[in-house]
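Lab notebook, bench 4. The sequencing result for the construct came back, and we need a structural model before the next group meeting so we can plan mutations. Quick request posted to the team channel:

Model the 3D structure of this chain.
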Amino acid sequence: MTPRLPADSIKLELRSLINQSSAAEPALAKRLDDIWHWIKDKKVGLLTSKRVVLDFLTELILDAKLWLKLRSLNDEQREDFFERSQLSPVAQYWYQFLFTQWIDESDPKLAIWKKRMMSGDYSQKDEALINSVSEEIEAGGGACLYRHILDLSMATDLAVSGSSALPLCVQLTVLAEKWLENKKDNWEATIRYWGVRRGLLVSINPSNERDRLLLADVILEKSDLMPDNGYAVHIF
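Done. Here's the predicted structure in token form:
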């Protein structure tokens, strides 16, 4: 896990990135300015006590820095950077498409989850499951990427790529099949909004050890076998 930036550094980093991007990348500057106004009046001690807020802000700052670097490169330089840095296909997809989408498009969920995150109402109940399945997917030769933006805005617990190198956005749910239809409709509407071409909704009983053991294999298999454009639901 990326080390969490201290709260006082985060405020300075955000202001620096806003100034740096305001001329060349105004959409990024505008998005970062919105985040700045969310935290600017919060005392350092309060922010320090908000683990999830600091994790999100750390992710955002590091992603914005790398995104700006990539935007400054031409296609050949960018491909050379990806090769030298060994950035996985799913990480490339994040920086080149999904993070760019989040910067450029309106985020209908942003105001809601900022409020929940700051108030402490956002709890990562499935964090242990996500970490476990990520480790198993990577052990099986795949690549995973977790971001708070994916989770909270894009109905995606993990972005995954397998041997096909095609990214797949995966959401996990504990809802039983009879309650799944409304969840499926909302999930599909969200990933369509963001332009996600390949999505998988997995219904799992986390207390069932067999389901947990098979979860990574199912995700990797779907990642490799699903078409270039399509959504699927898997129910254990």
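The longest helix spans residues 51-71.
Will bring this to the meeting.
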